[in-house]
Structure formats: C-alpha cells, structure tokens
Specification:
Length: 348
C-alpha cells in the first residue's frame, strides 16, 4: 500500500465556487465508480460566504422554483431575533441556519489521479429533508444504473437518500431510504438470493455505541431484516464508533468491506472486514489493526484534523484498488493498494 505521491489529489482551491460570493472550504469524502474508461467521483463540496462586518452571511438553497439554486442570506447581527449558536451557524426568527452548505460535485479522470472538476453542482439540496446539505455519496453500479446514496442533512437530523442515473447527466431522486439518524449506507453491487443488500449505521443513543448494521430489500426503497453485525471494540481506534465505507468488493473469499473507526482524540482510521458471500450478515474476519491512520500533514491538519474517511473505492481489472479518502475533512487523498493486500490486512 502507498499514499499517492501527488497527494492530496484534490484540494478546495481546485474547485470553483457554485455561486458568486461563496468560498469552497472543503472538497472531500468522494463517492467513486468506474464508467467505461473513466473514473467518476462525486465530491462533497462544502461552501461558506466571505465575512462582512456586522452581518451573518449564510449560504441557503432556494427550492421554490423549477431547479434549486444557492443564494446568500445576509442578516444583521444586531437584529434582536438573531441568536448565535456556535461557529456552525445562527438561529434567526426561530429557524436554524448553518454557516456552511454541502453539495455533490462531479469530477472525471482517465487515470484515476488527475481530475477535471465540473463548474456546477451535480446534486444540490432539493427539499426540506436536505435543507442543511447533501453529503458523502456512495455509488454502486447495479443492473444497468448507477445508484447514489447520500446523507441528507436537515434541522430534523441526518438521514440517507437515494438517487440514480444512467449517464451522470440526468439524475432521478427516490427519496429517503433510511430515516434519521442513519448514515454510512453501502449498497452491495449485486443481488444475493434475489434481494438487494446494504450496510447502514443508525446513531443509537443511550445503550451501546454507533455500529454497523445489515438490511435487505426487494426494491432498494423498502428495507428490513435489520441486524447489528459489527460493533466498536474497546481500543484506542474504535472507542467511540464505527461506520461502513464504500460498497463492498466481491472476492473469492467473501465480501471485503472497508470501514472507518473513530477512537480516542476523535481520530478516524480505516479498517477491513470480510463478510460471507451468501449470507453477508455473517462476519468471517475482522482486522485487529487499521491499515490507514492519519499521519501525513494533510491528514493531521485541516478543517478537522486527524481524519481519514472513505466512501469511494475503485477496483481495476488487474487487481489494483484505488481508495479515495477524505483527509482532515478538507481534501482528497488516494491510497493505492490491491485486493490481496487488503485481504492480507485482515491477518495483521
């Protein structure tokens, strides 16, 4: 395994803002898929507004017209109906507003390393369930379509929504498939025993810690047979929570899942687990150590330092694997590895 020598391969400065007056603060956590000879990424692009004395300047999405669009809302800070929450936003007239807004942006590459980034958003928030942004896409090629699940953020919490496309030009939304609070959904790339399958991550409170769950579905929209299959271990890497990554890679040994753990000091690391090919709720193996931890400067320093997080993996015909990952919630890193090396990490 090796970090690509050109890391980080995408930085906020590489991405044009989606509207005048906005600043790109992060371009990270990309979903990834091969489409013919191209690699396509769906970047999470987080934007805010340039500050102005005496004003709260906030990006908002207008959804009351035919197509959603981003505008800048300017609110005088001395307005008696303004209440500052923290650095993330304000409450104005009883309604929450965040200082940043995320959308999904398409990037294309012929070599999987050097990307051309679209100037316009691919997917903007479209309704109240996405009012605070759309984030962290996963992409799976399944039965003639590319299915995109992503985190929809709103004042009600975060949930998982589903969209699909055949050409990455026109996109169809299918609504929420896992309600609040649920994210880190990874759909399997083929049916098993006639049904669709997915990993997901409810954010339980009270008992237990956020863990990786399994579910199946007849149609990708209605999910059941839920069961918890992987729980955090009491180690410095997983003490807080774990969550699924990109769609599983099918190997002769089973379904290879790359997941993340959050541990002491809010550090994120990447791990491998192996699931049974016919009964993917059965865990066959699980690594005892992470294969990637935040060590490089662009991983330890940034918008949120100490984070490596993947939701996009591409496999090549020769067995190579490109793991695209968000570094410090700010930029995109690339780890070059192989199926064999990832399987070997289960024994480390």
């Amino acid at each position: 395994m090796r970090r690509h020598p050109e890391n980080p391969i995408i930085c906020p400065t590489d991405v044009p803002p989606s509207a005048p007056g906005l600043r790109v603060r992060g371009a990270f956590n990309p979903g990834a898929v091969r489409v013919g000879e191209e690699v396509i990424l769906l970047l999470r692009v987080a934007e805010d507004c340039a500050p102005e004395q005496g004003l709260a300047r906030l990006p908002v999405v207008r959804t009351d017209e035919e197509a959603p669009r981003v505008e800048i809302l300017e609110i005088p800070l001395d307005d008696p109906e303004v209440r500052r929450k923290d650095t993330r936003g304000i409450v104005w007239r009883g309604r929450d507003y965040l200082s940043t807004l995320s959308h999904l942006r398409l990037a294309r590459s012929s070599d999987g390393v050097h990307f051309e980034i679209d100037t316009r958003p691919f997917l903007l928030p479209a309704d109240d369930s996405e009012r605070f942004g759309v984030e962290d896409a996963r992409i799976v090629a399944l039965e003639g379509r590319y299915w995109i699940n992503y985190t929809a953020v709103s004042p009600d919490g975060w949930a998982t929504a589903l969209a699909s496309t055949t050409d990455f030009q026109r996109v169809e939304r299918h609504g929420l498939i896992f309600t609040v609070q649920n994210k880190d959904v990874a759909i399997f790339p083929r049916r098993i025993d006639g049904r669709f399958h997915a990993l997901h991550r409810p954010d339980n409170q009270g008992f237990g810690r956020p863990s990786i769950w399994y579910a199946d579905s007849p149609d990708l929209l209605h999910w059941g047979n839920h069961r918890c299959i992987l729980r955090p271990r009491d180690t410095r890497w997983e003490a807080a929570k774990i969550g699924g990554g990109a769609p599983c890679i099918e190997t002769p040994a089973g379904w290879l899942q790359i997941y993340h753990g959050k541990g002491e000091g809010q550090r994120y690391s990447l791990w491998t687990a192996l699931l049974d090919r016919d009964e993917p709720w059965r865990v066959l193996k699980r690594a005892r150590r992470p294969f990637l931890e935040p060590e490089a400067p662009y991983e330890t320093e940034g918008f949120f330092g100490g984070v490596v997080f993947t939701n996009g993996v591409v496999t090549w015909d020769d067995g190579r694997v490109f793991v695209y990952y968000g570094a410090a919630d700010q930029c995109v890193g690339l780890l070059e590895t192989s199926v064999d090396e990832l399987l070997a990490s289960l024994e480390a």
